[in-house]
Amino acid sequence: MRIFFLLLTLLCSFYSYSQEGFPINGVEDIRDNHYAFINAKIHLDYKTSIDNGTLIIKNGLVEDVGLNIDIPNGVRVFDLDGKHIYPSFIDLYSDYAIIKSERRRPSSNWMSSYTNPQILSNKNGPFSWNESIKPEVNSVENIKFDEKRSKELRNIGFGAVLSHNMDGIMRGTGVIISLNSDAEQNIVIKDKASTHYSFSKGSTQQNYPNSLMGAVALLKQSFLDADWYFQNKGKINEVNLSLEAIHNNKSLPKIIEVRDKIRVLLAQKVGREMNYDFIIKGTGDEYQRLNEIKKNKSKLIVPINFPKAYNVDDPFKNSNLSLSQLKHWEIAPSNFFFLESQGIDFSITTNGLSNLKDFRKNLIKSLNRGVSKEALLKSLTYNPSKFLNVHDKIGSIKESFYANFFITDGDFFNEESKILSNWTKGSWNRVTTYNNKNYSGIYELNLDDKFNFSLEITGGNNDHKALINLEDKDSTKIKTKLNIDGLNINLSFTVPNENEFSGEYKLTGYWSEGRFMGKGTSNNLDWIEWNASLVSSNKDKNSRIKLSQNNKEVTGDIIFPFVEYGSKSKITKENIVIRNATVWTMESKGNIENCDVVIEDGKIIAVGQNLNVDENNYKIINGDGMHLTPGIVDEHSHIALTGVNEGSQSVTSEVRMKDVVNSEDINIYRQLAGGVTTAQLLHGSANPIGGQSAIIKLRWGSIPEEMLVKDADEYIKFALGENVKRSRAPSSTRFPDSRMGVEQVFVDAFNRAKIYSDKWSNYNSLSKKEKINSIKPRRDLELDALLEILNGEMFITCHSYVQSEINMLMKVAEQFNFNVATFTHILEGYKVADKMRDHGVGASTFSDWWAYKNEVKEAIPYNAALMSMAGVVTAINSDSREMARRLNQEAGKSVKYGGMDEIEALKLVTLNPAKLLHLDERIGSIKVGKDADLVLWNDHPLSIYSKPSKTIVDGKVYFDINQDIKLRESIKEERARIISKMKGSDNPGSNRRFPMRRVDVELHCDDVFEYEFLSDILN
User: Fold this and answer.
1) Residue 913, pLDDT above cutoff 50
2) Which residues, listed in sequence order, are joined to residue 824 by a DSSP beta bridge?
3) How far apart are CA 518 and CA 660, in angstroms?
4) Does residue 705 form part of some domain?
5) What are phi and psi of 842, to 5 degrees?
6) pLDDT for the residue 12
7) Contact between residue 164 and residue 202 where contact means Cβ atoms under 8 Å apart
8) Which of 17, 473, 837, 885 sits between 20 and 30 A of 595, alpha carbons compared?
9) How far apart are CA 879 and CA 719, in angstroms?
10) Cα-flanking dihedrals φ and ψ of residue 727, to 5°?
11) At residue 1008, does pLDDT exceed 80?
């Protein structure tokens, strides 16, 4: 047995190149390693294969491949007898071989990052100010061969991986590593193959960023800084190796990791803005937004970690499962099929797969969902090599390519076939035995060209037996010990003494070109040559091939959005006539009884009584006894966001809420059911200067970009009072911690913006020649936004309560020659209403909130009425996902508190907030030419008994109370269907997940952590 394994090592493990310049302890092995594989079905690439082909490799490279190839002398030949050869797979998202550095653990009190933040990097050296920006990290400098994991990957068909350090927003370069067992110097295919990014800050304890929007801003700012650094190199007295690395690696493929399909769209948007084409690593839910993803033509890296079934035995616990969780379990295995059907280039990764043994099983599962074998092979071979521009080295079996391939005993997608061996850079790695080769038959056994015996092999697969006949007609049969392992054979037998060739024989060899051959020892331990040629075969001709049954499984519909109350198709515009309603125009006409409103192409085209239209061309809605109002506009909302604050710094004007719009938030639908059609999504009140707003229409089922109001003016959130000075965290070390300090933050910020503007003005006034020797100013996203405020291109909505601070901000604005647009909350606005009117600022307040914290102890419910009477454009907002569902009732309170006219009261949530958002020419009233954003109520719109019957946005009916009833029943039926299917699925009970209670988090003004960023800190 020792001799067998010695020869196996010499003949099959083949070689490792010695490292040039490294000392050798012994005699250098200078042999060429030259092998030929004949009679194979060779899959040259994902779309081309040849039968009875020949593959010749030499010293780790493909020397030749094709048909009718002459085999050079001295080449070891393997007869594969119809077996398959495939290019080895490539995984583009791995941390294989990366030496893991010990992650710093956070303080046991995670709030310390809030009260005592780490402002700057603790990393030594001339690097970025932020620890999550580490483009200088080169993964190739931090690798160590990992035999265990390498073997696991080889065993499922992989021959190379792209590895990188999975930590931070900018993660450095990735390295392509071959999975052969060798020194690190010999496994690297390309040392700097890619650059890597994410929207997750990673292990750093540094405070900024603590939100997704902050991560986006930091990523963009870092790209801009690198350009500035390169443009001014030699002119500035600064060395920054992080910025140098960003620039030096600019031409490399850029791979960014995201957490869901909405973030795929975000990565595409950031790529467009920065003029970068990101390769996006998703999470397997891309099918839910396929058309939108396709429009941007991004390359995708997608996982094969299909969700496990849930344990659905307990009906009470099943209520914890959302419809989206159930549907994703069912549809996720079809993701590859949908990607292929849309022509989207994708590469499959094992990242996230808890058990690599599930890889093949999941591939076959996806095959049964309709994806083609060609697409799967392409995603595992050609696409990953093409994405990294190494398709001239790996991913196919072609001349001069690396000899990375694996051999199977049948079609790889036949669930019973097995991978026999995987060759990486010409190194043989056994995966399993050749279990379908049947060697049974009669052989002529020749020993050293002196003696001939008859060797009979019976049995098959892994149960071969052998007998030796000393002569053809001799009835004497000698027991023979036989071991066949793949193409290798081990024989031992003893010839009785009465024969001239008596003695003990031990033979080892291999199968090649229709015979066994090799070396062995005789009784006197002399080495002999031997071979055994097949004379007649007893093989069973009935080969076992069980092909995967490619019967596409039927699944439920994809809905938009992919949550409860989603639609099977996107809601479309309709031509509508609403007849005989009481129309609250919010215009000079006031209320019109028995009025008709005509809608075409999303616009109001007619308002009046007894309008004459061809009803065959319109959907007719009967408004008898009902009230039609403009859609409600919520000036202050935090729904449909993944986070509300970048609460790490006092000035964060660089962040944008439009980067974190969550179009899948169920509160969009719930607020449509309350009549809301437009909302301003505001940054929170953690900072004196927060982030830029997103103004959306509640277009349920749309993606974030489609929800944004096109060409709307830009707004930004400022804040005053307790939240920004952190009154509830007196140990906080962040400036400011007093109301006086808040004022100085504003003054300092605008002074810096003016200086910034002057720098650019001076630079832009220079001639081309003068610019050559001048330092170009650094583009600063924070100051860009502040400068837009000074230039009247961006408008402030400010969180406020106390009259002294309200006065203060108006004076600061006047000092810098601009006006504050809106004070929101403004619960002491009634005290300074005259000053607000004179300044030209609007108010967006609560109807009757008071005494819920110290700085609102003097709030009164007459506030809205008093400010309106003083001539201030006043609105009532929600600042709450729940209150927004009843804003009509909140407006009605001003009839009670202050005796406001009903029409003026309804304006508080329609026309007036539209004015505050500079959208009153488009929304807020019912007028010809305006957007058809309308609500049909079943009762007086200010009544607590009134409900919307229909809510229309841009001429599309997004909420219909009758359709809502049908949707509820449909949801119930769909849940029952999938749960029943899940019970009958093939997942063993031990592998099922238990339904966990969902945490439905409501975002508030003062929430300073996003939950995913908090998990980054705590994990």
Assistant:
1) yes
2) 799, 844
3) 68
4) yes
5) -95, 175
6) 46
7) no
8) 885
9) 14
10) -60, -30
11) no
Lowest mean pLDDT among 168-182, 284-298, 502-516: 502-516
The CA distance from 479 to 458, in Å, is 13
Q: What angle do CA 887, 890, 896 make, to 5 degrees?
A: 155
Task: Name the amino acid, one letter, at 849.
Answer: W
Q: Indicate if 269 and 399 belong to the same structural domain.
A: no
- The top-scoring range by mean pLDDT among 94-103, 230-239, 341-350, 452-461 is 341-350
b/e burial code for range 179-194 (CB count within 10 A of at least 16 → b): bbbbeeebbbbbebbb
How is residue 717 written in tokens? 């959130």
Q: What is the CATH number of the domain that holds 859?
A: 3.20.20.140
Q: What is the pTM of this model?
A: 0.89
Residue 509: which of 37, 40, 3 has the closest Cα?
3
Instruction: Return d(Cα 800, Cα 735) in angstroms, integer.
Output: 19
- Together in a domain, 589 and 723: no
For tokens 């409103």, what's the residue? Answer: 597
Query: In the chain, what percentage of residues exceed pLDDT 70?
Result: 90
Domain membership of residue 455 (yes or no) is: no
**What per-residue string of b and e applies to 665-688 under the rule 16 or more CB within 10 Å gives b?**
bbbbbbbbbbbbbbbbbbbbbbbb
Judgement on whether residues 598 and 654 belong to the same structural domain of the protein: no
Residue 383 has what pLDDT?
Answer: 99
Amino acid at 410: G
Report the pLDDT value the prediction gives residue 986, as an integer from 0 to 100: 67
Strand partners, 678: 633, 697
Q: What is the DSSP letter of 917?
A: T
Token pair for 851: 């005494």
Q: How far is CA 965 from the centre of its chain?
A: 34
Does a structural domain hold residue 72?
Answer: yes
Task: Please name the amino acid found at residue 914.
Answer: A
Whether the CB-CB separation of 132 and 160 falls below 8 Å is answered with: no
pLDDT of residue 476: 72
What contacts 923, CB < 8 A, 6 or more positions away? 630, 631, 633, 677, 678, 914, 930, 931, 933
DSSP 691-750: EE-EEEE--TT--HHHHBPTTPPEEEEEE-SHHHHTTT-TT--SSP-SHHHHHHHHHHHH
Would you say residue 548 has pLDDT above 50?
no
Same domain, 376 and 340: yes
Q: How far apart are CA 39 and CA 25, in angstroms?
A: 40
Query: Residue 386 in contact with residue 346, Cβ under 8 Å?
Result: no
Range of the domain at 51: 1-20+31-88+395-437
Q: In this predicted structure, what is the pLDDT of residue 969?
A: 98
Q: Which residues contact 125 (CB under 8 A, 6 or more apart)?
A: 241
In sequence order, what are the residues at sequence separation of 6 or more whose Cβ sits closer than 8 angstroms to the Cβ of residue 219?
169, 170, 197, 199, 270
For residue 550, pLDDT beyond 60: no
CA distances to 196, 314, 906, 977 from 258, rounded to whole Å, are 11, 33, 43, 31
Q: In the numeric block, which tokens belong to residue 605?
A: 């085209």
Distance CA 244, CA 136 (A): 8
**What pLDDT sits at residue 102?**
65
Cα–Cα distance between 487 and 482 in angstroms, integer?
13
Of 512, 543, 514, give the one whose Cα is nearest residue 435. 543
- Cβ atoms within 10 A of the Cβ of 230, count? 14
Q: What is the pLDDT of residues 645-680, one digit of tens each?
A: 999 999 999 999 999 999 999 999 999 999 999 999
Residue 106 has pLDDT above 70, yes or no: no
**378 and 503 share one domain:** no
Q: Residue 23 is encoded by which pair of tokens?
A: 């000392």
- So what's the pLDDT on residue 557? 96
d(CA 133, CA 206): 11
| Amino acid in the structure at residue 396 | S
In angstroms, how far is CA 66 from the centroid of its own chain? 40
DSSP state of 9: I
Residues 57-67, mean pLDDT to the nearest whole number: 97
The verdict on 11 and 156 lying in the same domain is no
pLDDT in tens, 418-434: 999 999 999 999 998 65
* Displacement of CA 390 from its chain's centroid (Å): 24
Three-state DSSP at 456 gives: strand
